[in-house]
Amino acid sequence: MATAKKPAAAAKKPVAKAAPKAAPKKAVVAPKKAAPVAKAAPKAAAKPAAKAVPKKAAAPAAKKPVVKRTPNAAFMKPLTPSAALAEVVGAKPLPRTEVTKKVWEYIKKHNLQNPENKRNIDADDKLKVVFGGKKQVSMFEMTKLISDHLK
Question: In CATH, which superfamily holds the domain spanning 75-147?
Answer without folding.
Answer: SWIB/MDM2 domain (1.10.245.10)
